[in-house]
Amino acid sequence: MTGGERIEDRALLRGRGRFIDDLPAPPRTLHAAILRSPHAHARVGRVSAPEGVRLFSGQEIAAGLRPFIAVLRTPMRHFPVATGKVRYVGEPVAVVLAEDRYRAEDALELVEVEYEPLPAVVSPSAAIAEGAPLLHEAAGTNLANRRRFSYGDPEGAFAAADHRFAIEVRYPRSAVTPIECFGLVAAWDPDADAFEVTAPFQGPFALHPVMAAALGVPANRLRLRTPPDSGGSFGIKQGLAPYIVLMAAVARLAGRPVKWIEDRLEHLTAAGSATNRETRLEAAVMADGRVTALRYRQLEDCGAYIKAPEPATLYRMHGAMTGAYDIPNLEVENSIAVTNKTPSGLNRGFGGPQVYFPLERLMHRIADRLGLDRLEVLRRNLVKATPHRTASGALYDSGDFGAVIDLARPALDELHARRAAVRAEGRLYGVGMAAAVEPTVSNMGYITTVLEHEQRLAGGLKNGALAAATVAIDPHGGVTVTADSIPQGQGHATVLAETVARMFGLTPRDIRVVTEFDSARDAWSIAAGNYSCRFAPAVAGTAWRAAGSLRDRLARLAAARLDLPLEDIRFEGGMVGAGPDKEVPFARLAGLAHWSPGTLPQGVEPALRATEFWSPPELGPPDAEDRINASAAYGFIFDICGVEVDADTGRVRIDRYATAHDAGRLLHRPMADGQVRGGLSNAIGATLFEAFVYDEAGQPLAGTFADYPPPTACEVPDPEILHLESPSPFTPLGAKGIGEGNAMSAPPCIANAVADALGVEDLELPLTPARVAALLP
Amino acid sequence: MKPAPFDYLRPASLGEALEALASDGAMALAGGQSLVAMLNMRLARPDLLVDIMHLPELRERGHRVGAAVRQCELAGLHPLIDRALPHVGHYQTRSRGTFCGSVAHGDPAAELPLCLVALGGRVHLASARGERTVEAAAFFEGPLMTAREEDELVIAVELPRPDPRAGYAFREVALRHGDFALAAFAAVADADGVRLAVGGVADTPVVIDGLAIDADAIDARDDFHADAAYRRRLVARVGRAAVEEALTCRA
Amino acid sequence: MPRMTVNGEAVEAAAEPRLLLSDFLRHTLGLTGTHVGCEHGVCGACTVLIDGRPARSCLAFAVQCEGAEIMTVEGLEEGPLHTAFRRHFALQCGFCTAGILMSLTAFLRETPRPSEREVREVLSGHLCRCTGYTPIVAAALEAADA
């Protein structure tokens, strides 16, 4: 484990970061503003503006586009701009261009749009009910898909169970809302019929061919670059994809480069969020608390369009629906609805919170109903040994879950004592816990679990997760690293520099990591991007392997030059060889390969540039029985917390939070802890404060940071972070992800504590003071 | 989020400022911590902004607080204000925002107007037509609605001198630190009894008898952060706590 | 044509009245270290010092700053705060960081020995989505101690 200061920090602390809006725009760039729908559902008529306004209507823009390709082939066509109808508030209707953003907004006010408002539908259960207003008439229904899955013998298990306990949950919409909003510069080269776009798009690059297809060009004619810095993403900047297409199309129509910087009102209305989901989860339980089967009924709300890569949120967890537990029988019914709300997308924890909230709340309830100790019930059901294959196909790769719980056990005992003491004073105090398995490195085939197997076979079985990295050594021995991930604050440059430096016996300072990504020049494939915590397990490991192949080359060169056996060659302190008098400086050796390629020993390739691709072989496609190993590795988390609820105000104060992780080998402990703190703080927001609330007409009510309230330094506690490290056998460095886990575990952990404090069973997020107070005497 | 165009004037004297404010579409710009956000969202559309922050006439800082005095300059003026100040926006907005601006804006959840009402203070207004004074209790008429005429400028607010024998308390419940109050309470306990001013609950700050709190008598607001029943609960419980604290502090 | 001092240098540049100070700094002067996150005064990313006091540059117009002294992150001397931020990993994406440095610079000058509570209250005027704030609090307390 390393953990030095971050390479990134010097520039960022001196105001020298280079974010999208900091970059110089090409000559003759025009600034865009988007006219957005004020209606949740309406027919769009004439769009007009006075002479002189550079207006591009939806009809005009869409005429040059094809609808987005989707996994689910439904008649619900999706363009990046509304054509005949708007289906959510904030949906782009037209684009105006002007010399700067101020003038673009002035022009926006001159545009007139004829709308014929239609009734809207906001909740997914209402959307699929008889007689609901139809969003996509051509589909004839708001139910985009329904599939039923059965693993093991759930029927038998339920019939044989001593008890059945159920929970119903309406999980709300929230998003981590990066502090930097979206932004991009798009240009069209008429001679090459090619687009050039710069945007802090985070991937997955599976969307790159989707974007190119929408623009009607081969993917090699959509050159996508990212700025060196991105002001956070947390999944959200995947949502840039439709805007990249929209503005590229406008740039082509206008014949001028177009710059668009999203503002916060646009972001909170239309950038996207996690899905909201209605879930009924039922457990078959034996008298001793052992759960023998789970039955999920999930209704997913993707908003107005199934925007790629949706319905991925619903299927990312499909292999891991039994969480951290060894439950052999499982039944799942998944339904996907469209509603008059903003289309959903990636968000930290992606699909995890929607599953773990009902599951971990239910485990808590099972113990209470049976009068058993909550931790005992959790332990009794826990996966006992790894590797472990779940009922629905996930392969939990490594770790001793019980040992992670033991790490947190002393803190839990202390919390129970504290609860007794605080309650003795007449105050409301509760203790909660939650266990979760954190999936890492998504299988590019998992989304096809939504299809029938015959459909999958027809389309070709999709699987794997290719990662790519390139390491090059220059004639002075300088090492440059590029990789197929787009950093959004996770310190990629630092970790890659440390990882590659270790391979060559250099210092991180000797390594230069170039974080700007360029789809035209960098090695990448569809899995590229910064999501599902793929950086540490996949990308850093792939860079390690690329460095390794160059090291082999250099070692052979050194062995020949120094006349030493290959196995004696070491890389240490900038020298290569076998100790004093039998070594050569790393830089000299590199220079040799560049300057004297003709004199290299037989069989040593002169090029000092290596690109490595890596895909975990464990990631197969969904099988004929719909079993899917949706992720390459699985971490484990056990969270506990103590909360005090103010009996007057209903305010929840997190008194103490401890989180124990096994994320495999940690590549940089302080940054791993940073991921934990950040994920936890996002989860606290989602649990206590944040929700995208809509009124019955589909109007969003939380349009500013005053109404959509991320927590501040006064609301986020300092957690105790504990680690075990059980290296993953499936990733090159043994690392797993750690950035998403607390987004999954913390909402049920905190809710369990609040339920404990109040002595209630049902809680709905977010646990705002008013909502909690309503449960108080 | 960029403002629509407007003209900008930095007048040299109060007279010049009031003259300018007499024209249609003119608005005063003080600290700008509410107004500029509204301009950015194009919710306010002035033709002319009159920047009053450089007028020496508006710099009084005693029991009268002039319109050019920023919130970060209020410490030590009055014990109730001192208790309320940490709840007024954030450190970063108090360095720009003004007491008079907050009063002129008239947000029903704002802390400084609430204090002014609790203390029985007054609002001094001036226009090209002349000056007048309005009791704080009568100044606030509804959400973002006040007794100020369009051409008038709140030139100062007037606080009664602190009563050394009185007890003062301020309590607030907000979603997050620094947010507008779901409910805020300013209590003044003196020889005459306890005045409890309640903010964030009704459409304006209201004053009730702190020794006979009847939360149901207040016409509480509903919004998606908190319903009326919750706000009344806060009146009954947190309002009472503020009263008790003020009574404890009463000499 | 407002004239002001920015990071110690006299500046005079055209600015229509509605030009926000944040845009003036970033796009007129090219000082892109000040970031814009919400333009309604909540997120704090755009915080700069106006005459030594922290202010949201999205809630001020360049014309209001005629005669003022502006300090942005580019004008801060490398000091204990920077060191402490690096040591504590008090930034990840770094987008909110400039504003936080400006607030803390002003605050620590006024309050050289703050409590953790005071630091958290000052930081409550800034939104950070990456760090969970704890490392920032630790860095501020360490810088105050330096």
What are the SSEs and their pairings?
The complex is a heterotrimer of chains A (777), B (251) and C (146).
Chain A: H1 9-13, E1 30-36, E2 42-48, E3 54-57, H2 58-62, E4 85-86, E5 92-98, H3 101-108, E6 112-117, H4 124-127, E7 143-151, H5 154-160, E8 163-171, E9 183-189, E10 194-198, H6 207-215, E11 222-225, H7 240-254, E12 258-261, H8 264-270, E13 276-285, E14 291-301, H9 312-315, E15 329-337, H10 352-370, H11 374-381, E16 388-389, E17 395-396, H12 401-424, E18 428-442, H13 453-459, E19 467-473, E20 479-483, H14 492-504, E21 511-513, H15 535-562, E22 570-572, E23 575-577, E24 583-585, H16 586-595, E25 609-614, E26 631-645, E27 652-662, H17 669-688, E28 720-724, H18 741-758, H19 769-773
Parallel strand pairs in A: 1-12, 10-11, 14-15, 20-21, 27-28
Antiparallel strand pairs in A: 1-5, 2-4, 2-6, 3-5, 7-15, 8-13, 9-10, 9-12, 13-14, 16-17, 18-26, 19-20, 19-25, 22-23, 23-24, 26-27
Helix pairs in contact in A: 6-7, 10-11, 10-18, 14-15, 17-18
Chain B: E1 7-9, H1 14-21, E2 26-29, H2 35-40, E3 48-51, E4 64-66, H3 79-84, H4 91-94, H5 99-105, H6 111-118, E5 122-127, E6 130-135, H7 136-139, E7 140-142, E8 145-146, E9 153-158, E10 167-173, E11 183-190, E12 193-199, E13 206-209, H8 228-249
Chain C: E1 3-6, E2 9-12, H1 21-28, E3 47-50, E4 53-56, E5 69-71, H2 80-87, H3 97-110, H4 116-123, H5 134-145
Parallel strand pairs in C: 1-5
Antiparallel strand pairs in C: 1-2, 3-4, 3-5
Structural class of chain A: alpha+beta
User: How much strand content do the residues of chain A show?
Assistant: 15-25%
- Kindly report the spatial arrangement of strands forming the biggest sheet of chain C: 2-1-5-3-4
As laid out across the biggest beta sheet of chain A, the strand order is: 3-5-1-12-9-10-11
DSSP summary: helix tally of chain C:
5
What's the helix-strand series of chain C? Answer: EEHEEEHHHH
Shape of chain A: globular
Low-confidence stretches of chain A: none
* Largest sheet geometry of chain C: 5 strands, mixed
Q: What CATH architecture label of the largest domain in chain C applies?
A: Roll
- The named CATH superfamily of the largest domain in chain A: Aldehyde oxidase/xanthine dehydrogenase, molybdopterin binding domain
Strand content of chain C: 5-15%
What's the mean pLDDT score of chain A? 97
